[in-house]
């Protein structure tokens, strides 16, 4: 059984190789629409156009950091309900309590297993994992 509408993920990461890998993984294995941008500011600009179902966000980026991005996202009534997942080498910095305080669903550690990444995301978001074919 597959989902009738594909989910849209906005990936914000300044590393081109990570963007390429995650895009391929999520679009090929899960069938999701993946929009990639290289900065948090580009991400904020893209949200109004893309209306993503979730945001996958690197923590350490030049310019605006992830915490500021999430604060701006939550200040806007049109974007505050979009779930955010962190994708970061600093995943252990974020305790469950800290994630909840920040309004972030989970932190996924880099490096990650590309084959299991869609299942991890779907599980964290409580999406129907039957549509994920890994």
TrEMBL record:
Every Response regulatory domain range: 8-125
One Gene Ontology biological process: phosphorelay signal transduction system
Top-rank lineage group of the source organism: Bacteria
InterPro entries for the chain: Bact_response_regulator (IPR050595), CheY-like_superfamily (IPR011006), Sig_transdc_resp-reg_receiver (IPR001789)
Residues bearing the modification 4-aspartylphosphate: 58
This protein's UniProt keywords: Phosphoprotein
UniProt cross-references to Pfam families, sorted A to Z: Response_reg (PF00072)
UniProt-listed PANTHER family: CHEY SUBFAMILY, STRESS RESPONSE REGULATOR PROTEIN 1
Protein name per Swiss-Prot or TrEMBL: Response regulator
Lineage: Bacteria, Bacillati, Cyanobacteriota, Cyanophyceae, Oculatellales
